């Protein structure tokens, strides 16, 4: 980390000559700290003010001053500024090399004053807020006082806020007796984790084998617990730390097709037409929810209520704590394939080509969003906009309040099976093997994630956050992309049977871990979970 090329800006009320700027106007003075970091250690912290002036410099003491010097200096002081400059030019022209060198040695330190040490601490900290984090790390090496300032906890909290880091690293993760601020440790740790993601610095993934040769149909990840659901009628709870299967949740009499998880509560939906509520820590089935008359195909949990959608064309709103069905929503004329619930409105998509917006409390359909010409497979809903993906290759953006179609996003060539929406950025995965990044406010496609390193088969799952996009595919890989540029960064996972039957069905990621559900449909790859940990420092890597 270095200062080179970095500048910081300070708002000043006065110009460099001490005169105030015109009333009502403030100018920016750019001060480049690049000149403050030298190849040899500086002694800025030793500079002090004496009677309002800088410390006295060391003078030449080779002998008595020449006669007439005081008269010459008096005359020099009487001249105007331009006259003094002219006199100095003439003087330099008449100097020998060693005399010019002496001038440089005298003058140069005058431009290396430690202005930070001369400011009140509060103002000095304010100035340092304009430095980039990497430059703060370099500034801490300048002198003891700068190090004290650059370690300020509130200063690093602001840097974390600028980077979207809202939680401070726990004290147990910091070395005992460490003087480093908690927020600085948090920032450095987050930077290390992101570097590990981008460059692949991690230990070999843990392999969690289970579900025999069945398909893993759904995957959840919360805290240190992983829950996988399969068409073998079971769910399994795993430790993300040890990789051990903690318990197997049995009770369904048909394949598990969907699940949701919050803390240690798991809800599953099955072809046996029921939902089950589980305690992941004990393995107990807390409630079995009866009511649907066909396969429970989708669900969405919000708080202690979950909405389920079924092939029986209905949706049901359940209270997870009591197991009671509170409302039934009818109106679709074919299977309900996807659902979203924000706690106030329910949005559903079905095989009848329709998207519906519901008030679940009154069981009234507020809007039927018509426009797709084939089955609706995927939905996103942020309270203001509904985004629907269909087998007709299009993605539509709807106004949730009016029901109007705002944009039709075209470009994909097949089924959009998965999407994720954050603010105005939508990322979609398609069976055409591509991932696209959209701005739903403008309807513009920002990037198509393809090229020589693109997926070779249908995209099965995706996730994005903090400037990175993860996508999995039927081709047996998980790829990492840069959200801002659309560039492929690397293959995070590549199965040995990739391209010959290996499939990554599902992925779930936190800031520090990636969980992949993988297998094959032709026996070339055994069914398993892969867990990758990116929260590794150099010491941990060396001990692996």
TrEMBL record:
What range(s) does the F-box domain occupy? 113-159
Which range is the signal sequence, renumbered to this chain? Answer: none
Principal cellular location given in the protein's record: nucleus
Q: Does the keyword Repeat apply?
A: yes
Q: Which Pfam families match?
A: F-box-like (PF12937), WD40 (PF00400)
Which UniProt key words apply to this protein?
Nucleus, Phosphoprotein, Repeat, Ubl conjugation pathway, WD repeat
GO terms (BP aspect): negative regulation of osteoclast development; positive regulation of oxidative stress-induced neuron intrinsic apoptotic signaling pathway; positive regulation of proteasomal protein catabolic process; positive regulation of ubiquitin-dependent protein catabolic process; regulation of circadian rhythm; SCF-dependent proteasomal ubiquitin-dependent protein catabolic process; ubiquitin recycling; vasculature development
Please give the InterPro entries that the UniProt record associates with this protein.
Answer: F-box-like_dom_sf, F-box_dom, WD40/YVTN_repeat-like_dom_sf, WD40_PAC1, WD40_repeat_CS, WD40_repeat_dom_sf, WD40_rpt
User: Which region ranges are annotated with the description Disordered?
Assistant: 1-20
Q: In which pathway does it act?
A: Protein modification; protein ubiquitination
- Which residue intervals correspond to the WD repeats? 216-248, 249-288, 289-328, 329-368, 369-408, 409-448, 452-491
List the molecular function annotations (GO) for this entry: ubiquitin binding
Gene3D superfamilies cross-referenced by the UniProt entry: 1.20.1280.50, YVTN repeat-like/Quinoprotein amine dehydrogenase
Q: What's a GO cellular component annotated to this UniProt protein?
A: cytoplasm
The reply on keyword ATP-binding is: no
Question: Which cell locations does it reside in?
Answer: Nucleus
Q: What is this protein called?
A: F-box/WD repeat-containing protein 7
Q: Which organism is it from?
A: Amphilophus citrinellus
Taxon lineage: Eukaryota, Metazoa, Chordata, Craniata, Vertebrata
